[in-house]
Design brief:
With 131 residues, the protein is α+β, with helices and mostly antiparallel strands. The chain is built from three helices and four strands. A hairpin with a 5-residue loop joins strand 3 and strand 4. The longest helix is centred in the middle third of the chain and has 13 residues. The N terminus and C terminus are likely disordered.
Length: 131
């Protein structure tokens, strides 16, 4: 599994900026192409073949630790390319994150950062605080 340093779980980071929450991957369904999905799960998690199969059979289940949004989105892409169904969740507010033009959930973020910077509440184009 790819781990990036610097994911903060609250408070202020260097330079007085509030750091982003972590994002995790939720496997919602293994899909029809089990062999490909197991290989993709191994790629995403670094687990053995057996443990990857067990994790796929446990859907719905979180398959990654909280990480940067880009890392979680790449893991979802790998799983979807293999026929599995997965989504990215914000670790602070447990809401689905998408790169579409509309917010998934207009309710305010429950995390310790400004609501206008929440990637689950705002369309990506409206997120100057996160760039």
């Amino acid at each position: 599994m790819v781990h990036l340093p610097g994911v903060a779980w609250g408070g202020r980071g260097r330079g007085g900026r509030v750091e982003e929450p972590g994002f995790r991957v939720l496997l919602t369904e293994a899909g029809d192409r089990k062999v490909e999905a197991v290989r993709a799960m191994r790629t995403v998690t670094g687990l053995s073949l057996w443990n990857s199969k067990l994790l796929l059979d446990s859907a719905p289940v979180a398959v990654t630790e909280p990480n940067w949004l880009e890392v979680a989105e790449e893991a979802v892409r790998v799983l979807k390319d293999a026929g599995a169904h997965a989504t990215v969740l914000c670790d602070w507010c447990d809401r689905t994150i998408t790169r579409g033009a509309e917010p998934i959930d207009a309710a305010p973020c429950k995390g310790p950062w400004p609501a206008e910077a929440c990637r689950a509440s705002c369309p990506p184009a409206a997120l100057p605080a996160c760039e």
